[in-house]
Amino acid sequence: MLGSLRSLMAHGAPKLSELVELVAAEMAVDVCSIYIKRPGDILELAATKGLNPSAVGRTRLRVGEGIIGLCAASGQVMNLADAQYHPRFVYRPETGEEPFASILAVPVRRAGRTMGVLAVQTREARHYLADEVEDLETVAMLLAEPLAAAGAADGSEEGIAGTVPRVFSGVPLVGGIVIGVIVQHGARAVTGRLLADDPKAELDRLQAAAERLQRGLDELLDGRLPDVGEAGAASREVLEAYRLVAADAGWLNRVGEVIRSGLTAEAAVQRVASDVHDRMRRIADPYLRERLADLDDMAGRLLAELTGGSARPTVPPGAILLARRLGPAELLGWHDSGIGGLVIEEASPAGHAAILARALGLPALGGARGALAAAAPTDQAVLDADEGAFYLRPEADVAVAYGRALQARQARRAGWERLRRKQPATADGTRVRLMLNAGLALELGELDRTGAEGIGLFRTEIAMLARGSVPDIAEQTAFYSRVLDAAGERPVAFRTLDLGGDKLLPDAAQPAEANPAMGWRSLRVGLDRPAVLRKQARALLLGAAGRPLSVMFPMVATVAEFRAARALLLAEAKRIQPAPERLEIGTMLEVPALMWQLNALLAEVDFVSIGSNDLLQFLFAADRGSPVLAGRYDLLSAPVFDLIEQLLCAAAVAKGGAGVPVSLCGEAAGRPLEAMALVGLGVTTLSMSASNIMPVKSVLSGLDLAAFRAVLAGVRRDAGAASLRGPIEIWAREQGLDV
Ligand code: PEP
Ligand code: MG
Q1: What is the mean pLDDT of the chain?
Q2: Catalytic residues
Q3: N or C: which end of the chain has fewer CB within 10 A?
């Protein structure tokens, strides 16, 4: 069939009517039809061989309606032996399709968007074989350009690009409003030559491109990038991951097979990548999905090598990035290109992409399913990450209203300027300490910019993830020393490596686990394979060079683990001169089991920092990365309030009454309403991302704490409620607090 198609396409784009004739003949089916997607999510019959010709241009289905509509909506192949038994079957008499039983429908996609559907039918009830499905998918791919051209030719270019305003709702990850043009992560369209008559030449091109890709990665990874923490380091992680994928011969072999069937190298890469994509949509396992995402990125790079283009489009300043998934390092890369905000279809508030976006101050929305597929490259959009809405091609008055809201917000920020130099405190004078969460060198400047009183959580693994490997002692020492230099007199709590779960280095020897978040991660790895933790301890002590040093351990589940980790750190401390002026060793409270070891724990730790992201995930048995569960369990609820209160009570009387300081460094600390509640409960040291410090400071400065405590006591009587957010929020708004 590809041979016939090649002849047909030799003189430019074929007519759709010729294409359907050819496919019907080559596949020996009774019907072949093409449906084009029109504005308003309508699929219109554009050409047919076998159905009633007068139905062309008349038969219209909504996306989601009938088998054709379902194929377009789901983006999946529909292979049905007898369509009329399918629950979504609809019958359109004008098409004369009554005699036809079987249907095979495949979506026509271009740059990740569904542009139409290609379908074949037979009288006989039959299932289509894998080879037939593959053939029709290949034709669908070849159809993408002619369909775009057909849409343009009949004056409805918008039929392809879409003009209707669309609104998507999602989960706010990082608040803020952005108005701008969209850019798509991972959207690629292969244009130009798709069919080749010399497979050998195409295989050679593939081979050469794969070698260039590999060489380019090797060169970059062999130390030519700038150091840890800066922009170059971000690309390093991406590259390190790519390198593993690039070396995966299985994938390239598959591309080779497709080339042998008659496609050009770039068309074959695209074809295999979209197979990978389809499989990915059906896989729940997060680890496998990450690997498939790497493959997707690699396909982009390989296409760039083949076409001589650049893998990442240039970004208009302040553009809104749309992505299905996004790794922390990729996000850094886009940030460097100048995006102003982002929508990630598969992300949740406590995932690492969200945490990083927060650190960078990038408004971000999770969820908003379908936004990527509905968008076209030059679309304008408004991202309202406060209210959880994404307006694609907004109505003019929506855009104007948001323009006004943005101006008002800027005015409010000017008000924050006045607050910046004031110490954080509630309106009635309770002093609060607001600290910074950080992990990259580029965030250190935020200490001065935000007026934070120190770094309450320094995530040491982040720079390593950005770089893609664990640096040697000398490099780590220099980095930690730089962090302490930037902090000056301000305290810094370094958290030891918290790798594993969803934070994996490319070369991590991670066992296959059904529950990586509860698996062999973090301190557990540190204690079982102490060499890395020991190196880090040494680097922290050397970096301190006699200055005060504060270290805490993540994912501590038993006092015995804390003791073992502390012993390791103290053993290193004995060997290093000059000793830190003061060495404080604390624990994160992330595993609920510690709550039943409080007496023993508090007798030994110098401080406790509540890691509410993980603590809530384990307390409620609810995956922090699952968008489906986001918002279902709430920190603002009786069990969490009780837990915090018990901890504070025990900490206050620990060490013979001297007490143990308790702070909170999970994402909740940076949300004004949660911050208010935490201060109300008595947690007065909160550590958060830079972009949250001023909003939290501003709300706390207007809070009448005594009155709020009375309110809090009242709402807590409803101990069985899933969340106490409603009444707390209502009260805060009545007080005029900007929560
Ligand atoms: C936490 O779990 O709350 C925390 C601060 O650690 P991380 O988000 O890095 O897991
Ligand atoms: Mg944690």
Answers
A1: 86
A2: 352, 665
A3: N
